[in-house]
Prior knowledge:
By secondary structure, the protein is an alpha+beta fold. The protein has a domain at 34-103: Macrophage Migration Inhibitory Factor, CATH 3.30.429.10. The chain has helices at residues 2-5, 51-69, and strands spanning 40-47, 76-83. The longest helix has 19 residues, at 51-69. Keywords: Isomerase. Its EC number is 5.3.2.-. InterPro entries: Tauto_MSAD, Tautomerase/MIF_sf. This is Putative tautomerase YrdN.
Amino acid sequence: MVQAFDVPVTDRYQSVTQHRPGELVVEDTGLGYTRSKDVVLLTAVSRKRTEPQKIEFYRLLVENLQTKCGISPDDVIVSIVESDDADWSFGRGRAQFITKELT
């Protein structure tokens, strides 16, 4: 996200959940992908991004997961959920994007 979406390095909020075998069903959607037990299902919540930014994000994500973690590109599924500035509060009950505390 830092590279593709140009977000600050410290803009990091992550929730990681591991599932036991059989708790997560992830098919190939008819594309012929071979999934392994190491499948990664990633949901990113983000401000609106351009299509080229999203395509670059997908490319970099798969490249980095394969290079650094040995995860097959067939095992990476991504969904981006877009939100507006009013949908974010980073603490203290404030809407920092609206108040311009963050840009």
